[in-house]
Amino acid sequence: MASFDESPDQRLAEVLRSVVTHAHAVVRETRLTEDEWNAAIKFLTDAGNITTDTRQEFVLLSDVLGISMQTIAVNNRAYEDATEATVFGPFFAQDAPRIDQGEDIAGGAPGQPCWVEGTVKDTDGNPVAGARIEVWEADDEGLYDVQHTDGRVYGRAWLESDKDGTFRFWGLTPTPYPIPHDGPVGKMLQSTGRSPYRAAHLHFMVSAPGRRTLVTHIFVEGDPQLGAGDSVFGVKDSLIKTFETHDANEPTPDGRRLDKSWASTRFDVVLAPEDV
Ligand code: BEZ
Ligand code: FE
C-alpha cells in the first residue's frame, strides 16, 4: 500500500491500492496455483492479441463479468424518474445516417418491421425538443452491420425529438443474439457453462444540452432470453417494453399497409439533469 504514497496522482494511487487489495485477496482466498496464474496471464495475452480497432475483447470481458454494469451503476445515480442506463456495447458507430420523424432505421436490414414511438422529457415532465436520439440494433440474424465485412450501413440512424418532445421511427423487432464468442471471452463462457446470448434489445443514446446523456436499451417483454439471463447483465425491469404484434394489412400508425406482420412499441424517455 505504501509503495503508492508518493504518487503525484492520488486518485490513481487510491484506485491501485484497491486493485492490489482485492487482487491479493483473490490469490489468498482461492490459494491460486502457479499453473492457474500462468493460465490467467495467457488469457489476458490472448485477449490483447485478438483486440483490434473494431474488436475490443477487454470491454467484452468487463461486460461478461458485470464490471461494465457496476461502473454504469456508480456513474448514473438514480434521479427521480429518469430512465435507467445500461451497457453501451461495442456496436455503436459515430457516423450513422440521419433520419426524419417516421423514417426507417432498418435501411434494408432483414427482420420484422417495428414502429417505435415515444417522448423525451425532463424530470419535471417538460418536453425536451431537439434531443439527439441515436438508435442501433442487430438484424434478424443477430448481426450488426459492422460485423459484416462489406461496409454496409444498416440498422442504425439518428433523429431529433420534435418541439413537443415526441419521436417516431420504423426499426426491426429485436431478436436475441450472442455476443462475439469466438475469442478468449467466449472460451471462458463455454468453460463455465454460460451462454453468450443477450436478451433481445434495441439500443438508444439520447442527449440534449443540460441533460445527462442516456445510454440504454429497451428489451422485449416475453423474450425467453430474459428468463434465461443476459450474458452482460444489462436487463433492468423498467426497460422491458411491450411489443405488440400486428397482422399484415392492419393499417400502420403512419397510415400504410404492409404485406407482412409488424410490431409496435413505445419508449418514453426521461432525462436527468447533467449535474446529478
Ligand atoms: C451489445 O448489446 O451490442 C453488446 C453489449 C455488450 C457486449 C457485446 C454486445
Ligand atoms: Fe446490442
Number of beta strands? 12
**Main pleated sheet:** 5 strands, mixed
List the ions, cofactors and other small molecules found in this model: benzoic acid, fe (iii) ion
CATH architecture of the largest domain: Sandwich
Q: What does this protein structure show overall?
A:
The chain has 2 domains: 2-55, no CATH class; 67-271, Protocatechuate 3,4-Dioxygenase, subunit A. Strands 1, 4, 10, 11 and 12 form a 5-stranded mixed sheet that branches. The chain is globular. It has 276 residues and is of the alpha/beta class. Helix content is 25%, strand content 21%. The chain has 6 helices and 12 strands. The protein has helices at 10-30, 34-50, 57-64, 67-75, 184-191, 224-228; strands at 113-122, 132-136, 156-160, 166-172, 177-178, 197-198, 201-207, 214-220, 240-241, 244-246, 262-266, 269-271. Strand 8 (214-220), helix 6 (224-228) and strand 9 (240-241) form a beta-alpha-beta unit. The protein binds benzoic acid and fe (iii) ion (FE). The site of fe (iii) ion has 4 residues, from strand 7.
Fold topology:
Layout: H1 10-30, H2 34-50, H3 57-64, H4 67-75, E1 113-122, E2 132-136, E3 156-160, E4 166-172, E5 177-178, H5 184-191, E6 197-198, E7 201-207, E8 214-220, H6 224-228, E9 240-241, E10 244-246, E11 262-266, E12 269-271
Parallel strand pairs: 1-11, 1-12, 8-9
Antiparallel strand pairs: 1-4, 2-3, 2-7, 5-6, 7-8, 10-11
The protein binds benzoic acid (BEZ) and fe (iii) ion.
Benzoic acid is lined by residues 60, 63, 87, 89-91, 179, 198, 232.
